[in-house]
Amino acid sequence: MAKTVMVIDDSASIRQVVGIALKGAGYEVLEARDGQDALSKLTGQKVHLMISDVNMPNMDGIAFVKEVKQRPAYRFTPIIMLTTESQEEKKRQGQAAGAKAWVVKPFQPEQMLAAVSKLILP
Q1: 22-81 pLDDT, tens per residue?
Q2: How far is CA 44 from each of CA 38, 39, 48, 94, 120, rounded to the nearest angstrom?
Q3: Cβ-proximal residues to 13 (8 Å cutoff; 6+ apart), any chain
Q4: CA gap 122, 109 in Å, rounded
Q5: Residue 62: how many CB atoms within 10 A of its CB?
Q6: What average pLDDT does the chain have?
Q7: pTM given for the model
């Protein structure tokens, strides 16, 4: 059975690029526009990994990570931040919230898929 990855980004084109790369590698993909949208779509189904932008309307990526880590069903789900932010301070905030990796845009799909395959839940 294919593993499921949720992609959270307010940019439809980024969701599309990431989705194409993931689907090409055999993953199922769920999409969300922002942290709030993502939380509303997490209804207890198994999600093996999440990829989230940092800067989004309604709920940013770091607030989303903190919130998702409070939910027992998703406490151990690895989260990769995919963002234009490369500042150490933002990375520290992301790691403190529970993000497992930080991929800076523009990114190479291979680089992102390598991070996904390393971190995805069995």
Answers
A1: 999 999 999 999 999 999 999 999 999 999 999 999 999 999 999 999 999 999 999 999
A2: 12, 10, 12, 23, 17
A3: none
A4: 21
A5: 23
A6: 96
A7: 0.96
Q: Are 56 and 27 in contact (CB under 8 A)?
A: no
- Partners of residue 32 on adjacent β-strands: 8
- In the chain, % helix, strand, coil (3-state, to 5) comes to 45, 20, 40
Class assignment of domain 4-119?
alpha beta
- For residue 74, give both structure tokens: 């998703």
Beta-carbon count within 10 A of 23 CB: 13
Whole-angstrom distance, CA of residue 64 vs CA of residue 117: 22
Q: How far apart are CA 4 and CA 97, in angstroms?
A: 22
Compute CA distances 106 → 3, 7, 78, 116, 121, whole Å.
Answer: 25, 16, 21, 17, 25
CA 57 to chain centre: 16
Do β-strands 79-83 and 4-8 pair in parallel, antiparallel, or remain unpaired?
unpaired
d(CA 96, CA 111): 23
